[in-house]
Amino acid sequence: MSQQTSERNEAASHDSAAADANDKVTSLFGARQEPETGPVDEALELFNQMSRQITDSYRTLEERVNDLAGRLSSEERRRRDELEEREKVANRLSTLLDVLPAGVVVLDSQGVISQCNPAAVELLEEPLEGQRWVDVIQRAFAPRRDDGHEVSLNDGRRVNIEIRSMDNEPGQLILLTDLTETRELQSRLARSERLSSMGRMVASLAHQIRTPLSAAMLYAGHLYEEDLDAEMRERCAGKLMARLQHLEQQVRDMLIFARGDIRLAEQLGVGEWVQAVVQNAETSLQTRRATLTTPDHWPEGAIACNREALIGACLNLINNSLEAGADELALEVSGQGGEVRFCITDNGPGLSPEEAERVTEAFVTTKSHGTGLGLAVVNAVVQAHKGRFELVSDGHSGTSAIITLPLAAPHNG
C-alpha cells in the first residue's frame, strides 16, 4: 500500500517537472504562431479556381459539341433520305415519260427543246433536243383545212397540242396527243351507227317510196290513154311530176344521211340561193295551194356550200311545213356579223318545246307518215356548212325554221 502511494507521488512529481520545462521553453522562444499566407499561395489558389472553371467550361463545350454533332448527323440523315426520295421520284418520272403514250417536249426560255420523251421523237422525228420549236413546227407539221382542234403532221396523223408554262422556271411544257386512231374509231362508229339507222330506215322507206311510186305509175298510165283531154293530161302530168319529186327527195335524204359528210366545193351568192329555193318550191306550193312570201332584198355576199344539199335542205323545210298543214309561208333573209340568216315561218299547228328539240333527231316525226329523216337531214346539212339550225314555236300556231350560215367572199368566176 505504502509502495503504491510512493509510485503515484513519483509520477506526479515527474509531470510537474515536465510542465515546468515546457513553460521555460515557451518563455524563451515565445508562443507558437500560425504560418502566414503569401503571394505564392494566392497564386496557387487562383490557378486552382481557374482550372476548375476551365474544366467546367470544357465539359459544357464538350456537351454542346456532342449535341451539335448529334443534330448534324440527324440532319445529314434527313437530307440523305430526302435526296434518295427525290432520286426515286425523278427515276419514276423519267420512267413515266419514257412509257407515256403522249409526246412531251420541254422548251427553255429561248424556245429551244431541252428535253423530250420517245413518244415525241416518234411523232416529230429526230433531231429534237437542241432544236428551236418553230423549226420543228415548220418541218413536222402540215395543217389542213379540216383539222379543227387538232393539227395534222406530214405523215397524215393528227395530234392535239397542249401548252403549259413551267411553274418554277422559265420555259414551256408541250404535250402532244396522237388522236389519229381515236378519230378513225369515231368515224367508224358514226358510220356503223348510220348503217344501223339505215336498217331501220329501209323498212320505213319501203312503204314511203311504194306509195308515191304507185301513184306515179297510176298517173303515168293515165297519160297513155288516147281519149284523155288536154286539161286532164296536164293535171296527171303535174301530179306525176310531184310524186317523182317526192321520190327524188326521199332518195336524196337517204344518201345524205348515209354519207354523213358533205363536200363544200362551191360558192353560192345569197340572192342565187334564195331564187333557187323559191323556184324549186313552186310545184309543191301550187300542189298544196299554198303561198310563199319572199323578201325584196337580201344581204350581199356568198356562202361556201354544196349547192344541191343546201337547196334540198331548204326545200325540206318548206315541204315539212306544207305536210304539217300550213298554207301560208314567209321567207326572211338577213345578214349580221358575217352571217346570213335564212328563216321560213309558217302558219301551221306549231310545235311544243319538247317536239322542237327532238324533231331534228333521225326517225323522230310528229306526223302519222314519213321517215322522220327530213329535219335530221336539214340539221346534218347545216352543220356540214359550219352553220346552226333551230326551230322556234310557241306551241300553238306557227313555227319558224332558222338556218344561220357564215358568209364567205363572193365567188369571182
What labels describe this entry?
coiled coil, Helix Hairpins, 413 residues, disordered N terminus, phosphorelay sensor kinase activity, alpha+beta, 16% strand, Beta-Lactamase, Heat Shock Protein 90, five-stranded mixed β-sheet
Description:
By secondary structure, this protein is α+β, with helices and mostly antiparallel strands. The chain has three domains: 100-178, 2-Layer Sandwich (Beta-Lactamase), CATH 3.30.450.20; 196-261, Helix Hairpins (Orthogonal Bundle), CATH 1.10.287; 262-413, Heat Shock Protein 90 (2-Layer Sandwich), CATH 3.30.565.10. It is 56% helix and 16% strand. It contains ten helices and twelve strands. The chain has helices at residues 2-29, 39-99, 118-124, 133-140, 180-223, 230-259, 270-288, 307-323, 353-358, 374-384; strands at residues 103-107, 113-116, 151-152, 158-165, 172-178, 266-269, 291-293, 302-305, 328-336, 339-346, 388-393, 399-406. The strands form three sheets. The chain has a five-stranded antiparallel sheet with strand order 2-1-5-4-3. A five-stranded mixed sheet has the order 7-9-10-12-11. A hairpin with a 6-residue loop joins strand 4 and strand 5 (172-178). Helix 7 (270-288) packs parallel to helix 8 and helix 8 packs antiparallel against helix 10. The longest helix has 61 residues, at 39-99. The chain is rod-shaped. 19% of the residues are buried.
